[in-house]
Write a structure and sequence with these properties.
By secondary structure, this protein is α/β, with parallel strands linked by helices. The chain has helices spanning 21-32, 69-77, 92-97, 110-121, 129-144, 151-163, 166-176, 181-188, 192-206, 211-221, and strands at residues 6-10, 35-39, 53-57, 80-85, 102-105. The protein folds into two domains: 6-139, Rossmann fold, CATH 3.40.50.2300; 151-221, Winged helix-like DNA-binding domain superfamily/Winged helix DNA-binding domain (Arc Repressor Mutant, subunit A, Orthogonal Bundle), CATH 1.10.10.10. The chain contains ten helices and five strands; from the N terminus they run E-H-E-E-H-E-H-E-H-H-H-H-H-H-H. It has a five-stranded parallel beta sheet, sandwiched between helices. Helix 1 runs parallel beside helix 4, helix 7 (166-176) packs across helix 9 and helix 7 crosses helix 10 (211-221).
Length: 230
């Protein structure tokens, strides 16, 4: 069970109108948590242990195919809930498989939000039964078809990771955060052409055909090896 001590709510930067779920959600959290903090950016890595639960506002975000790497890494070590979500911008299966505790949609009724929070506080999940069942069956099917790989295959991904340069890892990490080439160039103080060169090299080393495949590769093999975004 999650100890009712502190919760952090990550809001959407400069969102002009808060969802109607905000007042009700905060009222519920105030009743169960002694500390509720709300900000449009996650706390510094060193301060994240101060919070027992994280709620992430996904309004305006499209995480249907790709979840930001910093949230994936956070969900590995802390209970994370996505809320204020749009049904066509979220893939519940991806959230479930990546250790998220649940999702609340922008049209959920207050009583459903309350029920879901109580379930999560009691260390349960809050996803649709259909999604949980389908995901469970899919995992079972994958396990049943599993055949042990050779040592060469098992070591191929760590080898690919070790072959990447520090700069290539930095470029990949920013790419997985959703940054475009120009933003990556500005962040790393390099040219757009140099970013393209690093990406081309990373594509070859990771056997990725495009940016989405490279981002998925990074989220799978690099998230736990890179620092959380400040």
């Amino acid at each position: 069970m999650i100890q009712p001590t502190s919760v952090f709510i990550k809001t959407v930067l400069k969102m002009p109108v808060r969802s109607q779920c905000y007042p009700y959600l905060i009222k519920i959290l105030d009743a169960f948590f002694s500390k509720v903090k709300m900000d449009d950016s996650l706390p510094h890595c060193n301060n994240r242990n101060e919070f027992d639960l994280f709620l992430i506002d996904s309004n305006g975000c499209n995480w249907q195919n790709l979840i930001p790497a910093d949230l994936l890494a956070l969900a590995k070590v802390k209970p994370v809930i996505v809320f204020n979500a749009q049904s066509d911008a979220i893939c519940e299966k991806n959230l479930l498989l990546n250790n998220f505790k649940g999702v609340f949609y922008n049209n959920d009724l207050p009583e459903d939000v309350f029920k879901g929070l109580m379930r999560i506080i009691n260390d349960e999940l809050w996803f649709s039964r259909k999604i949980i069942s389908a995901t469970f069956n899919e995992v079972l099917a994958m396990v049943s078809r599993f055949e042990p790989q050779s040592n060469h295959d098992a070591d191929s991904e760590p080898e690919a990771l070790s072959n990447l340069t520090k700069r290539e890892k930095s470029v990949i990490y920013l790419l997985a955060q959703g940054a475009n080439n120009h933003s990556i160039a500005e962040r790393l103080n390099i040219s757009d052409h140099t970013v393209k060169t690093h990406l081309y090299s990373a594509f070859k080393k990771t056997n990725s055909r495009n940016r989405i495949e490279l981002s998925n590769w990074a989220q799978r093999y690099m998230a736990i090896r890179l620092p959380l975004q400040n």
